[in-house]
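User: I'm putting together notes for a lab meeting next week and I want to include a structural view of one of the chains we've been expressing. I don't have a solved structure, so I'd like a prediction I can at least talk through. The sequence is below, exactly as it appears in our construct file.
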Amino acid sequence: MESRLRGLIVGKFYPPHAGHHHLISVALAEVDDLHVVIGDHPREYLPWQLRWAWLAEAHPTIHLHRIEDQWGADSFAWARACLARVGPVDRVYTSEAYGEEFAGALGARHVSVDPPRLRVPVSGTGVRENYEKYWDYLRPPARRWFCRRVVIVGPESTGKTTLAQRLSERFAEQGATWVPEFGRQWCAARVEGEADPLAALEALVWKKADFVEIAAAQCEWEEAAAGRAPLLFCDTDALATAVWAERYLGQPVPELSAWKPPESRFRRLYLLCAADVPFVQDGLRDGEGIRDWMQGRFQEILQERGEDFVVLKGGWEERERDAVAAVRRLGER
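Assistant: Thanks for the context. Below is the predicted structure for the 333-residue chain, given as structure tokens.
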């Protein structure tokens, strides 16, 4: 029986980028079984479990392994570790100068793939130092992890949607975009065609499942947008949906109160719009009398959870000015 050709790739994949994916694709075209080793070190801020998941999603036929990364170890030490974990291999694929020595220590043939990185000019170090510059070399899961997110919350008629749009325009050169509020569209669909939409909305009998559905859809919209843009402005999120659920149901919804955003490189920033501007009825707003309660509840929850937030007060120009300053500080982290 003809033996199967076994290949090996070792890297930190910190994060996986187009160069890694190209290397893996070249190897997959030439070997029967490809083993990919993730070198992991406790000092690294990107969990190896995420790197593993992203690689598995992109290349479902590879065999993944994790080895603790001993910084400074030579090729022979790495070879011993790989032999213990993976066993003998026939080919080693790298784009690095150490590749020949490493493959020799494994008794394998070295296949050098684009060592000057002319085909795919990107490196993990480059991405970590300036992920926006190399945004196009990342796949959506890695992009979502690096995306800086700004969530705009607050009572009704405090300028949240307008501010999300204006901020995305203001930071367009940084690739910014924005996500609208799913809940508003959900409500509009429920009262479409009614002679008095507001009265129909007030007559709705809200259920816990409605808010769970709205929060899930809001998260889907947010994650899809985060896979496209390095800077994202969200007109509400699942945490805000939890506050709205409490407002309509009279009690918290445990599934929403326990919600946590997905793991990411940066903490999200909340911009809390205060209720110190006139209420404007647009046909779907029914919370004028509880705007102060809503603002207080938002602030209470954000403080309880230890979230980063800025309260925006005053006129529209003042709010936008303070919001822009907060977003710029976020970019300096």
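A couple of points you could mention at the meeting. The chain is about 45% helix and 15% strand. The CA atoms of residues 144 and 221 lie 12 Å apart.

User: Perfect, that's what I needed.
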